[in-house]
């Protein structure tokens, strides 16, 4: 805890100096200045010792914020100040200034009674994705005769996970507008026809194709029977995300990489809603993140957690290494969606490894 004279102590000191200066003209003023200086000196020292003893280790300041937020969207929280001492205090809160994080909070002096607490609003807005350190907190306070200002530093290791700007996610429900379709009776159903996944056997009709006839089942039933197929489900969909130097450009004022992240998350949601297995391979010169393709309730959250703090690096992307990793970890057939920019002539000539 640091202490330095408060403005009222400085004003009192200036008045004593003025009174002592007046002693050149009125000797009695010099005598009075001497006595008053002695009394003021004892008072300010006793006030300092009393306050330090009363406050030390009894003041607490906490920052309360949600664990995660969305880039450029405000995250609301609060400061909680607890006064565990036996004296009332007048306090003011300070936040560390950090790049990429804007903090809006109450900077007014606030009275807190002995043994009481006070809560003030805090709003944090992040301008970039990733895991951001929020820095420490400081508190300036006065007590007693308010001749001293005490400064207390609180080291807070709090982090804020800032996710990409996905419009539907920021409103709290990804693709919430689809719920309206269910409310009016529209719902998804199984689609039969030219799929490759077997569904059931049924009797042949004149509109069916001859190649769909199941001859063994026809022989057993004594009448034409066909294989009814349906569109495939539970297929693997792999998001192949380029994190190389080509992703540093912008599209309509937003980083290209952020827009690709938005598209990747929305595609993952659509695929998971169709019961497909969705995975991720994020790469540049090396494979940086891998999420195995599965279908589970929290798979979308797992994909977002794997992508939200990725940043492109100024290195050439190794497509061959990415596809080699993909072949080793996902050997069966699936759909691969590559998010990249091949407009660069140098990168376009590199072997991709897809063939």
Describe what this molecule looks like in 3D:
With 355 residues, this protein is an alpha+beta fold. The chain has 4 domains: 2-55; 59-167, Immunoglobulin-like (Sandwich), CATH 2.60.40.10; 192-230, no CATH class; 236-348, 3-Layer(aba) Sandwich (Rossmann fold). 29% of the residues lie in helices and 34% in strands. The chain is built from 9 helices and 20 strands. It has helices at residues 7-22, 27-55, 167-170, 178-183, 215-221, 256-273, 299-307, 319-329, 345-348, and strands spanning 2-5, 59-64, 68-70, 75-83, 89-95, 101-105, 110-112, 117-126, 130-133, 137-142, 148-154, 159-163, 192-203, 225-230, 236-242, 250-251, 254-255, 277-283, 287-294, 334-339. Strands 1-11-10-5-7 form a 5-stranded antiparallel sheet. The longest helix is centred in the N-terminal third of the chain and has 29 residues, at 27-55. The model is unreliable at 168-175 (pLDDT under 50).
């Amino acid at each position: 805890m640091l202490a330095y004279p408060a403005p009222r102590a400085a004003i009192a000191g200036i008045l004593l100096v003025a009174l002592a200066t007046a002693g050149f003209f009125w000797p009695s003023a010099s005598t009075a200045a001497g006595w008053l200086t002695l009394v003021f000196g004892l008072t300010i020292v006793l006030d300092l010792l009393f306050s330090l003893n009363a406050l030390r280790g009894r003041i607490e300041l906490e920052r309360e914020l949600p664990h995660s937020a969305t880039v450029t969207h405000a995250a609301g929280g609060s400061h909680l100040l607890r006064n565990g001492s036996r004296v009332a205090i007048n306090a003011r809160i300070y936040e560390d200034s950090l790049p990429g994080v804007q903090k809006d909070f109450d900077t007014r002096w606030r009275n807190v009674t002995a043994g009481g607490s006070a809560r003030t609003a805090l709003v944090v807005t992040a301008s970039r994705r990733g895991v951001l350190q929020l820095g420490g907190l400081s508190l300036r306070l006065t007590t007693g005769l308010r001749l001293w200002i005490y400064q207390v530093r609180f080291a807070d290791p709090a982090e804020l996970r800032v996710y990409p700007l996905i419009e539907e996610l920021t409103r709290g429900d990804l693709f919430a507008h689809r719920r309206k379709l269910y409310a009016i009776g529209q719902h998804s159903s199984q689609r039969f026809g030219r799929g490759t996944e077997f569904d059931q056997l049924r009797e042949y009709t004149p509109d069916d194709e001859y190649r769909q006839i199941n001859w063994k089942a026809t022989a057993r039933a004594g009448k034409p029977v066909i294989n009814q197929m349906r569109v495939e489900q539970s297929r693997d969909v792999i998001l192949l995300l380029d994190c190389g130097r080509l992703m540093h450009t912008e599209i309509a004022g937003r980083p290209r990489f952020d827009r690709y992240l938005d598209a990747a998350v929305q595609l993952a949601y659509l695929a998971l809603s169709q019961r497909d297995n969705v995975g991720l391979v994020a790469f540049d010169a090396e494979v940086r993140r891998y999420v195995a393709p599965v279908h589970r309730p929290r798979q979308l959250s797992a994909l977002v957690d794997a992508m939200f703090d990725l940043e492109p690096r100024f290195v050439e992307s190794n497509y061959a290494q990415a596809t080699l990793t993909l072949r080793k970890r996902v050997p069966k057939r699936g759909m691969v969606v590559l998010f990249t920019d091949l407009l660069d002539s140098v990168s376009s000539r590199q072997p991709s490894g897809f063939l």
